[in-house]
């Protein structure tokens, strides 16, 4: 009953998130050097990025474990954590101090994968329950 497309998406999303994290970190450093980035906003942006990284590792681990063991609880918890990741992604897309076009592109891709993953998680949970 495990979902192969969901497992592939977990793998792809894990690879993409490494790129996302490094690109976002590099852009924050770039923005702090090129623009007049207020010091009061630099540390919250970095803190939120690292919180998002921790959530992402936990989300992918629980989702993959739940899918492979065909258990609803870890997969459902991963779905709940996805909501937090979506909120943080929207923060970096809309509410960040400076938003570059590259921020918009990489966050749009991340939000798309979150949406697709969420649909596949719901389908997998429904399959496990029945």
UniProtKB/TrEMBL annotation:
Main location: other
Annotated Gene Ontology cellular component terms: ciliary transition zone; membrane
One Pfam family matching this protein: Transmemb_17
Compartment list: Cell projection, Cilium; Membrane
Coiled coil: none
GO biological process terms, semicolon-separated: non-motile cilium assembly
Keywords for the protein's UniProt record, in alphabetical order: Cell projection, Membrane, Transmembrane, Transmembrane helix
Superkingdom of origin: Eukaryota
PANTHER family recorded: GEO07735P1-RELATED-RELATED, TRANSMEMBRANE PROTEIN 80
Protein name: TMM80 protein
Classification of source organism: Eukaryota, Metazoa, Chordata, Craniata, Vertebrata
